Amino acid sequence: MxxxxxxVLSGAAAINETIRQTMEFDRSVIVIxxxxxxxxxxxxxxxxxxxxxxxxxxxxxxxFGPIRVRDTPISEAAIAGIAIGGAAAGLRPIVDMxxxxxxxxxxxxxFNQAAKMRYMFGGQVKVPVVFRMAMxxxxxxxxxxSDTLYSLFTHIPGLKVVVPSSPYDAKGLLxxxxxxxxxxxxxxxxxxxxxxxxxxxxxxxxxxxxxxIVRDGTDITVIATSMMVNKALDAAxxxxxxxxxxxxxxxxxxxxxxxxxxxRSARKTGRVIIVDxxxxxxxxxxxIAAMVSESTFDSLKAPVKRVTSPHSxxxxxxxxxxxxxxxxxxIIAAAEELTSTS
Amino acid sequence: MNMVEDxxxxxxxxxxxxxxxxxxxxxxEFRKGDMPGFVHSYIGAEAVxxxxxxxxxxxxxxxxTHRGHGHCIAKGCTFKDxxxxxxxxxxxxxxxxGGSMHIADFARGMLGANAIVGGGIAxxxxxxxxxxxxxxxxxxxxxxxxxxxxxxxxHETMNLASIWKLPLIFVCENNDWAESTPVxxxxxxxxxSARASAYGFPGLTVDAxxxxxxxxxxxxxxxxARNEQGPTLIEAKIGRMIGHYLGDPEGYRSKELKEEAKSKxxxxxxxxxxxxxxxxxxxDLLKTRQEIEKxxxxxxxxxxxxxxxxxxxxxxxxxxx
Lengths: 342, 321
Known about the structure:
The complex is a heterodimer. By secondary structure, chain A is of the alpha/beta class. Chain A has twelve helices and 14 strands.
C-alpha cells in the first residue's frame, strides 16, 4: 500500500464510518438513542446537530432521516425494549446507550428479554441488536459515568460482549457485531475515541471470538482488555530492556472468548498476568484466571496474577482516579515478581 | 344494537369458548401433577384477547403476559403446539424451553408471554417500530395487567409511542388484582385508561364481560393505528374468576369478592345473546363444546406421547448462528 492510500482515523470517526456503512449496506439497520441527532424535532435539517454526546453519530440523521435515526427521550428501559422488540421483528437496531453506567436502567430488557428470548422460545427468534456505549475512567467523570461493566454482561448467556482497543479493531468488530444475529454489547472506552491510527475505508469484519496477539513474547503472557492493551505494550517495552519478553494478547471479545489462543500462549510462557480496568471480583480477569488455571496448570511456572482496579466505584479526585486505573508500573511490578520467583 | 355480523359473532364465541375450555382442561391436567412449572389461568378474560385479536393478522404483532394462553389461542396458536409446550415437550411451540410463562409463536406474530410484569410492553412497541420503519400497514398490540400499570417502562413506552405515532395498542387487562394487591390500593386512578391523556392519546375503559364492546373498541383502535394516527389505550375491566395461579388459596380475597368476580363471566351472556337472536341453537352449543373437547383430548394425548428434550441439549440455541 502506498502512502497516498493510507488514511488515519480517530476511534470516534472509525465508529461513525462503520455505522454509516452498515446503514448503507442494510436498510434494516437503524440507530436509536438519546441525543444521537440532537434537535431531532427539526426533522433532520438541523445544521450543527449534536450527533451523540461524543459526536459518534454525527451526520447520520442528515443522510438517513429521522425514521432510521431515532433520537429518543431519556427512557433507557423503553429504548432498549423497543430496539429488542424491533430486532425480533426484523430490524437490526444499533442502540446508543451513551454511557455504560446507564445500562442498569435497561437491565431487565437486556437480561430478561434480549439475552433469553432465543433460548426460552426454542430458537424461534433472532435478536440482532447492538448496544453501543462509552465507558472507562480517566476523564474525571467519576462514580456514575465511568464503569466498564462488561464483566457483568459476559456472565449472561445469550449476550455477546465486545471490547475494542483500537480504531482499526473497532471498525471490524462493530461491522461483525451489526451482522451478528445475537444481542451484542459493544464497549467503547473514552480513550478510544481520540486514539488515531490507519483504518481502511472499505468495510471489513473481525470475527467475534478471535483474540489478537498484539506482541509476540516468550517469558510472560499479558492478557489485557481495552485501554489496558496500550499499557501492557508500554510495560513490555520497558521490560524488554530488562530482558523480559512479554507476549501481549487482546481478547477483543469477552463473549465469546478465544480460550484457545490465550491457553496456547499461557502454555508457551508458563506465566500469566491479566490486566483489566474493572473491580476484581467476579470479573473478566477472574474468569480468565480461572480458565487458564484449570486448562494449563501443568504448564504454569507461577500462579496467575491479576492487575485490576480496586473493589471500589470510580472516584473523582485525580490522585484517587489514578490509583483506580491499573498503571504501567503495576504491570511491571507484577512481571518482575513472576520472573523473580520462577 | 350490535353491528357485528353473525359470522363474526360465531368466531368470537368459538374463540372465547376455546380459551375457556383450554384453561379448564389445563387446570384439570395440572392438578394431576405431571405438568411442570407455574400456570396462570386466563379464565374470565376471554373477551379481551378475543375481541382484540379478531382484528389482527399473522403480520401483526402482540406481546403477552404471564397469563398468556388466551392471547396465544386468539392469535391462532394450536392446542397441540401449546399443550406440548406446557408439558415441556420437544414438539412444543418453544421446544419445551419456555413453558406456560414463556410461550411464543413468532410465525403468528406472537412475540411471547412474559414472566416479567410489564416486560413485553416495549417489545411490542419494537414490533410497531419495525412496521413503521418498513412503511407497512400493520399494528402491534401489547397486553398487560393492572399490575404493570405502575411499572416505569409502560410510561416510557406510552410517551415514545405517542411522540412517534407508533401503530401500537395498549391493552390493559385490569382484573383488579396484582397477585394479592388490589388496584384500589396500588393505583392512583380509578380508571387506568385515564393515564392515556397524560401521553396525548385516547384511552377508554370497556367491560370485559361484554365481548362485543371489546370488539368494537378494538376495531376503532386498530383503524387508528393502521391509519398512522398513533396509539390507543384500552382498559378492559375483568372479573378475576380464578386465583393468581393454579393452586392459589386466595386467602387475601373474601368470598363475596370472588363471587362478584364470577358474576362478570363473559361467556354465559354471549351464549344467551346468540340463542336469543337465533344465531345458534342449544344443541349447537353442545356440539361446539364437544368438538372443542375432542380437539383438547387429542392435543393432551399428543403432548403426553411427545418426546421430552434430551438433557445433553441444555446449551443448544443460546445463540443464533
